[in-house]
Amino acid sequence: AVLPRDLVGAVRALKQELRAVILAHYYQESQVQDIADYVGDSLGLSRQAADTEADVILFAGVHFMAETAKILNPDKQVLLPDLAAGCSLADTCPPAEFAQFKARYPDHVVISYINCSAAIKAMSDIICTSSNAVAIVQQIPPEQPILFAPDQNLGRYVMQKTGRDMVLWPGSCLVHETFSYQQLVKLKVRYPTAKIIAHPECETPVLSLADHIASTSGLLKYVQQDEAPEFIVVTEPGIIHQMQKAAPEKVFIPAPANNGCACNECPFMRLNTLEKVYLALRDRQPEITLAEEVRLAALAPLERMLAMSR
Ligand code: 13P
Ligand code: SF4
User: Fold this and answer.
1) Ligand 1 within 6 A of CB of 129
2) Which of 144, 219, 241, 300 is deepest in the core (most CB within 10 A)?
3) pLDDT digits (tens, 9 = 90+) for 217-244
4) Quick one: three-class SS letters along the chain?
5) 259 lies in a domain?
6) Is ligand 1 within 6 A of the CB of residue 215?
7) Mean pLDDT value of segment 194-221
């Protein structure tokens, strides 16, 4: 495709013409974050999607995020720059298997992490994100058993924070599981004054080394408030772009993957580029579509989450 020389200007013009809003996750490449109207974590992005008055939502994130925006906005057009931007974690929870698993626990309330397909949301009672998972579980009466899906690492972290037992679906994110305890210990020896900050999708041994554990927006807030001069960032390094903007005097060290390579970047998030954002707005595709029956079933647990995390 022939692309305009001023891609940023062209995206801005198309955005105005279509009355579109661009929502971007912190794991997007810097250029994409910089063109967005709002950059946030999964909860912030869901809130923005629920409140927007735009006609078109261009979602610079992965499929389950754009799908969430569509669930909340059936009458708006939701565009995803690359339809192949999936999620390894969402893929660890196929609907047919999950239905069988859930049937074994008929008296359990099903809390699903937002990183799952609409079909899994439709089988859930409440959705949560990494920033409200603990608060949502704390609102469930103590005698009520809980089934938590699909991320077992976040599930274990929530169990530890709340003292609740939960049945866990054995899913995980390939990006957060590349971080290793050994690599992190080595890094801490090199940077003894650095604080380790980690996302709860990391495995328990990695989390045990962290000074602070939070969602992406929680980590961003922490580096602005804490006095440490250096931070070892144990999540997808896209978030460092906003950290550098918010605290330019501080140093952010991306945690390496276990073999020392740069595969700590989410390959799905990084499929979106500024060029594809432009093309999606120009062509008004790829578009997210959903069967109304699934959408309605997935909407109820999402609305429950929004109501429980005000
Ligand atoms: P949050 O930004 O909500 O912490 O989620 C992280 C993530 O893995 C998104 O895919
Ligand atoms: Fe999915 Fe992990 Fe990528 Fe987030 S970082 S979109 S959980 S694969």
Assistant:
1) yes
2) 219
3) 999 999 999 999 999 999 999 999 999 9
4) CCCCCCHHHHHHHHHHHHCEEEEEECCCCHHHHHHCCEEECHHHHHHHHHHCCCCEEEEECCHHHHHHHHHHCCCCEEECCCCCCCCHHHHCCCHHHHHHHHHCCCCCEEEEECCCCHHHHHCCCEEECCCCHHHHHHCCCCCCCEEEECEHHHHHHHHHHHCCCCEECCECCCCHHHECHHHHHHHHHHCCCCEEEECCCCCHHHHCCCCEECCHHHHHHHHHHCCCCEEEEECCHHHHHHHHHHCCCCEEEECCECCCCCCCCCCCHHHCCHHHHHHHHHHCCCECCCCHHHHHHHHHHHHHHHHHCC
5) no
6) yes
7) 98
